């Protein structure tokens, strides 16, 4: 284990969007490095030329940017390092830790068929492992790692504990294909070593890979990183997260209008815990996060918890930061940008919009009263609330508001007195007032809307609603 600065990495394959599971892996690596003054690196594992695309790479970069997981240094392309990977394979060959294998695919398949028929292990045992180089034919070959045939490999994992794998369960892994291209398992080790990665935090579907990769580290005399293999994310039903559970890509959560701080908080809590703390800031997460807090069981994705945390983060977010995030949400969903007047109105209204919105669409729906220009067009429910009786109430109320000082206390006093004179309660007036001021029935309080809109605009809207005027 390295005593120097912590270096972690996130190494996705660019074959599609940034998966929510990958985003959590990136977050854990980011938190672990940032909390220790270390470095968080990004490597794109683009060696699969048929499936890797520039668009997918960009989708990963965009997803990380939205989540606020900034990486250190340049993005490393694994494909661009193929020469270096091949160089290490040659070095292992020269050390006697690897060998040239001339067995053909047909010979390997024949070996496996015989092994299956005889009930033996189908792990391929190459006849070239200890062959005299003088006997080597002039034919294509792969380079294989010489794996110890006895004893065991112990993965000392910070999440899974010590995992022991008998070396007789490991074959002589191919390092370099017959066309001279390196395999993924070699490339990962070389890149992690060259990038100075001290801690490999990744999904537990890579746990068995660690045993095979350790063979390369040890054969090269390199320091083995600290392993931490984290359980995968399951759906609410306990099955592996898939399309039927809902959104899988980080971009989908941005388009649903979740705030990035809420998403970071929720993903951090998905499989990691710090006592009973549910809601926390980035600074707290970086200070608290450690590998020992990661559970061994798969975490279950829960939209209700995500909604709850998102709402809490929206409520405490700085107004300017919130406005910036809302503008990014509108851009990501292809909606029209806010005008200067709408930004101004939204900023003034933010104090009465933040508390109960779990997502940006919810907040924007409640902000309808200040985002829409006059005349406000009522939706179906609001139109029903503006019946003849309600319009009569608004017509009688509006003149009494003309001389109000337009403070909350004074507006409340006028409204309550009006209701009392009519033998009713203010609650009965709220529906028509919401409909008149916002054209909606789900809004901030009537008083907040009136204060944000101001005297002239509020009275104009009430008058229009009272008379049923269109303009």
List keywords for this structure.
Arc Repressor Mutant, subunit A, three-stranded parallel beta sheet, Rossmann fold, single chain, GluQ/Sye, aminoacyl-trna synthetase, 20 helices, three-stranded antiparallel beta sheet, nucleotide-binding, 471 residues
Describe the protein's architecture and organization:
- ATP binds at residue 243.
- It catalyses: tRNA(Glu) + L-glutamate + ATP = L-glutamyl-tRNA(Glu) + AMP + diphosphate.
- Residues 6-307 form the Glutamyl/glutaminyl-tRNA synthetase class Ib catalytic domain.
- There is one protein chain.
- With 471 residues, the chain is mainly alpha-helical.
- Among the domains are: 80-230, Rossmann fold (3-Layer(aba) Sandwich), CATH 3.40.50; 371-467, Arc Repressor Mutant, subunit A (Orthogonal Bundle), CATH 1.10.10.
- Helix content is 47%, strand content 10%.
- It contains 20 helices and 12 strands.
- The protein has helices at 20-34, 54-67, 82-94, 105-118, 184-194, 207-220, 250-255, 260-269, 282-288, 303-316, 319-332, 340-349, 360-366, 368-371, 380-385, 388-401, 408-421, 426-438, 446-453, 455-467, and strands at residues 7-10, 39-44, 76-77, 98-101, 142-145, 152-157, 161-166, 174-176, 199-203, 226-230, 233-234, 299-300.
- The strands form 5 sheets. A 3-stranded parallel β-sheet has the order 1-2-3. A 3-stranded antiparallel β-sheet has the order 4-5-8. A two-stranded antiparallel ribbon has the order 6-7.
- α2 links the parallel β2 and β3.
- α5 packs across α6.
- The radius of gyration is 31 Å and the shape is elongated.
- It starts with 6 loop residues before the first strand and ends with a helix.
- The model has no long low-confidence stretch (mean pLDDT 95).
